[in-house]
## 1
Amino acid sequence: MFWKNKIKPTITREILQDYLTYSGGKLPVCRAPFTSLYFFPDGQVGSCCLNKSFYTLGVYPENSINKIIKSKKRTEQQKYILANNLSNGCQICNENINSGNYSGVMATDYNKHEIGKNIKRIDFELSDFCNLDCLMCERDKKNKNSIYNDSFFEELKPYLKNLEATNFLGGEPFLIDIYYKIWDYLLIHNKNCNINIQSNGTVINDRIIELVSNEKVFISLSIDSVNKSSYEKIRKGADFDKMIKNFNVFNNIMKKKSHSMYVSVCPIAYNAAEIPEIVKFANESQCRIFFNRVVSPTELSLDNRSEGEYKQLLDNYYDQLNELSSNTEIEHYNKQTFGDFVKLIESLSKSAKESNNNILSKEKLKEILLNNTFYKRFPDKEMIILKCIESISDSLMISTLTYDDINSGNFEERYFALLKSSKTDDEIVKLFEKYFEIRKSKEKIS
Ligand SMILES: C[S@@+](CC[C@H](N)C(=O)[O-])C[C@H]1O[C@@H](n2cnc3c(N)ncnc32)[C@H](O)[C@@H]1O
Ligand code: SF4
């Protein structure tokens, strides 16, 4: 299995060792490509949630689950991981490991599963349907249709029996009908499988309470602010007071099972200054904190902010980090997670300083793209890309990672995956802007 290949590592030996010491893991650096599948709403299937924009293994129902597991693309991704090269779909983990943001590294989550012949974990994002319209969430939330129907459920059953863990996302999981079938099936046929549900905390009823009370069912709630007005501004359609009431019900059920619930946070421009307050709330509620990495929409993302904005944030974070208590195991965990998040902001701040020197002109970008052989394979996309370029300012300040990538000619696979995998023009424009770090307007960090 651990064959030699000539793929160059993207992580130095020292950093890798440090990360493995932190994560208690061993090589390969991530097991997701060996043990796991992630189903996206549009039928794309990856090894993990972070693969979507970069590298997927196949598309359901065109490819059966069995075909996807046996696909060449899966083997190829495994080869890269074995060479400690995290450029094949794994760019976000690569960046988090290299910046020291270890608790934000998704790969850590896959350590638990031993590599074997069966798939051990499946993450389900089978529908975008949701009752809220959160600012940072770019999903098609009103869409009730899903390509995952009863025949998908039948095809899935043999895999469900061997799983060790499942994750249910969306959309809002408690509003997605097929999830109830999968939960019922797992609770009868695979009682040992962990069922993790990521919810917005606004939907609750007796059936949900009964489900969540099962020993192997765990829930995590998304709470992006503990101030009613910020929360309701970000989580459009939600009522803060009702969500907190539900939060307390779920948290008490988890505590009765001696399990600490997770609070998931999307740090964005609107709530960046409130992050320490959310950590304190998690401490008081005996919950663990988790930070999503929001790279898009770019105007809300904390990536690519100005040096001044980062400084303002970091000054606040350092003070608050020092004051955070660390008496219990959960407080210690939350302090460490917040500390790692601060490291990420430090690393972004460093990139912002460097990017003052990384100027890419609009003309240069046009020239690079039009002369690129890879790009020429997609002539039908030319107009869309040219239109995007015309709409941007004359020069872009980009991160060193992107700047070096472009100049090394190394960027083709990374950037042009968007031409291969995207379906609509809008999606291509969004990905193009994301990859070239093009920001139309900025929401200010308050
Ligand atoms: C898409 S939601 C689905 C589950 C549920 N509706 C919820 O909000 O928890 C899964 C997680 O992704 C987070 N999320 C939403 N938009 C995001 C974005 N643009 N980037 C990263 N994470 C995001 C949510 O806050 C949530 O924690
Ligand atoms: S609740 Fe979740 S799925 Fe719904 S809009 Fe918000 S982040 Fe998106």
Note: Residues 130, 132-134, 137, 139, 141, 170-172, 200 surround iron/sulfur cluster (ligand 2) (CB under 6 Å).
## 2
Amino acid sequence: MIHLPKKICLSCRNFSLQETTTGLCKVVKGLATYPVKAIEESCDQWRDCGQQYFIRTGWIKGRLAREKGLDGTLGTGIIT
Ligand code: SF4
């Protein structure tokens, strides 16, 4: 089955993840500050970021686990 990513900011090439729920949209170049977006937002300029999506979701899961006092791994180095 072909992987069809959800067209949300978290899976968008123009997105720069900053926190577990937010990041910056870099679609408009040359701004002094990029607009902040929630990870589940979207627009018609969405572009698939490929593998980066899984790296981002792993980072979010690890970060949330650490905030709960867990280390984010199960001794395997794999983020759960
Ligand atoms: S607002 Fe649009 S272009 Fe910007 S990160 Fe989200 S989906 Fe991508």
Note: The beta strands are 15-17, 22-25, 36-38.
